[in-house]
Amino acid sequence: MVCVQGHEGEMTQSKTYAFVDTNVLLHYTFFKDVDWAEELGVPEVVMVFAPVVLAEIDRHQFAGGRRERKRAQAVVRALDILELGAEPVSVVTMSGRWG
C-alpha cells in the first residue's frame, strides 16, 4: 500500500490517500475490517483502487487457488456495493470502520 498526503487547495485540510494493491486485498485482513485512519495515524483516509488493481482482482476470481478465488470474489462483491466512481464515496462509520 502506498500512502500520499496531499492538499486540495490552499485553505483546505490535508488528506491522506491510500493506494491499495492486489496483495493487500487478497492476503491480509479484509479491507473493510481495517480502521485505515487509525492504522495510518491520520484523521481521514481516501482509499484509492487503481484500475489495474481492480482488473487483477477480477482476474483472480477465476484463476489461482480456491482461497484466492473466494477472497477475490468477496472483494469484488464488497466493491460493487460501494458503487465506485470518479468521486470519493463515504463509507466510514462512527467507529471509523467501513459500513
Give the tally of structural domains: 1
According to DSSP, the number of beta strands is: 3
Low-confidence stretches are: 92-96
> Sheet with the most strands?
3 strands, mixed
Mean pLDDT: 80
Strand order of the largest sheet: 1-2-3
Number of helix segments?
4
H and E order = EEHHEHH
Give the helix/strand class: alpha+beta
Q: Tell me what portion of residues adopts beta-strand conformation.
A: 15-25%
Helical fraction equals: 25-40%
Please summarize what this structure is.
The protein is α+β, with helices and mostly antiparallel strands and 99 residues long.
Question: What do these coordinates show?
Answer:
- The chain is of the alpha+beta class and 99 residues long.
- The protein has one domain (2-82).
- The chain contains four helices and three strands.
- It has helices spanning 22-27, 36-40, 51-60, 66-82; strands spanning 2-7, 14-19, 45-48.
- A three-stranded mixed β-sheet has the order 1-2-3.
- A hairpin with a 6-residue loop joins strand 1 and strand 2 (14-19).
- The longest helix is centred in the last third of the chain and has 17 residues, at 66-82.
- The two termini are 21 Å apart.
